Amino acid sequence: MAFQIPISQTQSFSTDRPPFPSLSLKHPCLQSWIPRYRERMGLEGRRRLSSPRLRTTVVVSATATEMPRKPRSGEEEKGFVDEMRAVAMKLHTRDQAKEGEKEPEGEPVARWEPTVEGYLRFLVDSKVVFDTLESIVAESACPWYAEFRNTGLERSENLARDLEWFKEQGNAIPKPSTPGVTYSQYLIKLSAKDPQAFICHFYNIYFAHTAGGRIIGKKVAEKILDGKQLEFYKWAGDLRQLLQNVREKLNKVANSWSREEKNHCLEETEKSFKYSSDILRLMLS
Ligand code: HEM
């Protein structure tokens, strides 16, 4: 497994500055990768890094591991996102997606009877969740999260425009309700203490919205909005490329995780489905 640390970070270990001034060394992100970094570099402590000879070794070694290995012919490069996707697809019901393995429960989306009031509750609670995700990556308590700023997948501003439009049409905008608020609080807690689990939610929320979320949005719009396409379902630029960029970043971040940490991330998928499904159901309330 490649261990990828940008050279700028390896250098900060070779100075007297702490590696991440804004973070406690007890932070789970640092606890997770500092010991493996030291193990890999054959280091027991920062004192040994102050030797100029060792400093050179660290930089050369980091440079070599940053070179992506070329796939051999016929060999497909599989990243951690493929593993996250495989787990997520199995959690769909058979009527939701071809790869779904769960028995259908309730009506298929095509037979949903959404109401404008319910759809507004869904949009308001979705905004609470996207606002939360976007402020977590903006603050980046964990250095990995900074990779996911300005991906182009952000939804908060688009949702704000949609809610403004509904207001202009004379609709009352409801207050956030339990499903959105509960999920948001859970994400805040996870982002501080369990980064692998947080990344699982980050992936599922953004990618689900571009897949099933869009299908649902289209069907609902046909039924209750005269087919109007909301801003929530529009992205600036080529969506496929935006998704690919985020996949690459997720793969890069997960490259430094142990197998146990990866499994822990995958195990969180079910919770992500549960919280998101509770918000989806608001459409029918
Ligand atoms: C009624 C609910 C849902 C429907 C109809 C639905 C439908 C779909 C469909 C059709 C796909 C595309 C499959 C493909 O690539 O061939 C998909 C992908 C996906 N869904 Fe869902 N889904 C639903 C709910 C959810 C939920 C609640 C989550 C998790 C929070 C989720 C997570 C994902 C993920 C991660 C992918 C993969 C996206 C990608 O690879 O780009 N879905 N879904």
TrEMBL record:
UniProt KW Heme keyword: yes
Any one annotated GO CC term: chloroplast
EC number: 1.14.14.18
CDD domains named among the record's database cross-references: HemeO
Compositionally biased spans, kind Polar residues: 1-15
Keyword list, A-Z: Chloroplast, Heme, Iron, Metal-binding, Oxidoreductase, Photosynthesis, Plastid, Transit peptide
One Pfam family named in its UniProt record: Heme_oxygenase
Region Disordered, residue ranges: 1-20
Any one of the GO BP annotations: phytochromobilin biosynthetic process
Top EC class, one word: oxidoreductase
Molecular-function GO terms, alphabetical: heme oxygenase (decyclizing) activity; metal ion binding
InterPro entries: Haem_Oase, Haem_Oase-like, Haem_Oase-like_multi-hlx, Haem_Oase_decyc_pln
Subcellular location: Plastid, Chloroplast
Primary subcellular site in the record, as a coarse category: plastid
PANTHER family cross-referenced by the UniProt entry: HEME OXYGENASE 1, CHLOROPLASTIC-RELATED
Similarity comment: Belongs to the heme oxygenase family.
Protein name: heme oxygenase (biliverdin-producing)
Originating species: Apostasia shenzhenica
